[in-house]
Design brief:
Length: about 130
Amino acid sequence: MRCNFRFTTYEVVEREELRVVKRNGARQHFDRDKLMSGLRKACEKRPVKIEQLEQLADDIANELEEEGYREIPSTVIGAKVMHRLESIDHVAYVRYASVYRQFEDVGEFIDEIKSLDSRRVRDTTQEELFD
């Protein structure tokens, strides 16, 4: 009897226990899957390959390990994610930034978009969204 199903396994480097300090002071284990979940949400319906997100998550986890953190504020991880998302997809970046920075109104959202626009080289063939 044959199964006819294909199974895939992934190897993950076991890291020294890294604890994330949340904004409310709570501490929890660093969870790469939680990081991936946030990246998937930010990139939902965007032309970003899952392989790019996997690589981004691996890069951030490796960077944290190389920096020797035992505890790290969640804001540091968020800043690293935002920095990398900005170069991958601007819409995903703004989505992530809106949650990470806890935008309270549309004005903050628009300000972030304008600041993103000023940080990148302008494509003169693309139509302006905001004046």
